[in-house]
Write the structure tokens for this entry.
Amino acid sequence: MINPFETAKGQLDAAARLANLDADKIEQLKLPDRYVEVSIPVKMDNGKQRMFTGFRSQHNNARGPYKGGIRYHQQVNLDEVRALSFWMSFKNAVVNVPFGGGKGGIIVNPKELSLGELERLSRGYVQKMWRLFGPELDVPAPDVNTNGQIMGWMLDEFEKQSGTKAPGTFTGKSLDNGGSQGREEATGFGGGYVFEECLKANAAKVPPGGSVVIQGFGNVATFFAEAAVNLGFKVVALSDSKGGIYNPEGFDLKAVAAHKKTAGALKDFPGAKNITNEELLELPVDVLVPAALENVLTGENAEKIKAKLIVEMANGPTSKEADAIFEKKGIVVIPDILANSGGVCVSYFEWYQNMKQETWDKKQVLDKLSVQIRQAFVDVLAAKNEYKTSFRSAAYILAAKRIIEKMG
Ligand code: NAD
């Protein structure tokens, strides 16, 4: 079993050696500043009390408040939360928002809870954690299985406990509760802006109007697909948990979305061939975009990947072994901490709007996102050229330098 945290720490070590970064600071960055485990009693609908376990890891706040999502999942554990908080520090530094890294979670399958139980659990988490949170301290957000409604309950509980009015304490809120326009599109479109910069810089040998394969058809995949089509590319394969569809002529995305809505799955889309998720990754295309799960590109399948460019929209889709094989084969990889940083960038815009009591429209948000994430690409490219290394190492070098500079 590949441990993504070990992979990430290995990537940081490699980058630190290349750029001769301060070894003590690098060791410090491998551990979170603080992590907390809490027990949360929740009164269930049947009148009985059930105990839940919650976590928060605050990795580093040298550049600003800790920032990162809270996930609800039956397999959440402290190690995972610590690892994810590490990634957030680096992602926030790459896209240059003034945040550090944090992450939280509760061990729970939220589908087994009623809405009332879910609300009591979310409020219970904040009752135990609220002293750690605040717009200048630690700013949580949604992650796997959490959403704007849960952030709304958490904010309300935080304000009750702290006796303050502080909407900037949580991001990913619903629009009527202080959320930002453009958050839904942010990660996918952000990846699209990075992809466009990559083409402009001629960083990979991808022909104009080439073919793109996307694993996933959720929030991130859908908006990335739209961006790719707007750039003149053909999206020739897409997938969900039940399998993928392939048509070398390219898909009409609206028709695919309509089919998914009525059929409940992508498979059997008219005119397309059904394929497995494994087959999808190995298709003969120009661009491969993992936008669903971690660890899908490994030592097992990396030799069979034919794409010239991989844009990592999912978190941690590529193992260390696969990375080495791609480097040898000349496949260019745009790393997750750059490619999918559009989401956290717009979270920063939400926080900023809350702090300044401003409301931006969608165009303003997406225009600002475009400027900020394209600059992140340019900065990573400069580091790549300076250190003659991969985009991934360059992103780690850039982020580590930015964090270390503020660590004092
Ligand atoms: P989502 O839940 O909207 O979509 C996930 C997609 O993955 C769905 O299409 C689902 O069918 C598919 N999927 C699930 N299991 C699968 C399997 N076994 N094989 C193939 N496909 C499978 O999630 P999302 O928000 O689009 O996130 C996708 C990825 O992007 C995740 O890795 C997430 O961590 C990462 N990410 C998301 C954001 C964001 O803002 N949403 C930000 C940064 C990173």
